[in-house]
Amino acid sequence: MRLREAKLARTRAQIVDVALDLFLEQGYEATTMEQIAARAEVGSSTLYRYFPSKELLVLEPLVRATDLASLLRERPEDEPLGVALSNVLRAAYPAGDLAPSRFVALRKVVDGAPAPRARLWDLMQTAVAELERAIADRLGRPPGDLGAAVAAGTVYVVMRRAGEAWRGSTRASWERAVDRTLGQLADAELVVPSHLPGSARGGPA
Q: Stretch 32-40: mean pLDDT, rounded?
């Protein structure tokens, strides 16, 4: 079973690598799934089994890097949540298995193509919701807990700000960017909407 899983993982990685080469050579719109299958030396049916659409294929490395819920669930259960989330952010190296230069080039391809750019936004919202659920589970709170939602949103704000400072460099520089951003968060004067005097608490809207 492990050998089969390893073979599937290698094939998936080969497809992504070949597709990225084509996207960088001739652009997202000009690249077809048939061209990707031919260069990856797999059948079209095999390609579509791994990736049902070209959008999901070009976004694969980016989506994998934003799956913070899975990283949180891998953290030790007795680790304080704040520490766990910091470690998750440090581990969420955006480039993943890609060389930083290829990651930056991929982002330019996605940013220049409206369809995958819009799909990435949708997938990011799903990732935030998944992290919210993972945080609620860890806290023993019900789905939709407001505190878990605020925590998840804050984590992705930190990730975005760290990414702006990182600018596509090494894993060590990513960790430093995260640490600097977390330091800024600790020093920030956070402002949230206040409960209005005389308004109802906890009742239906």
A: 96
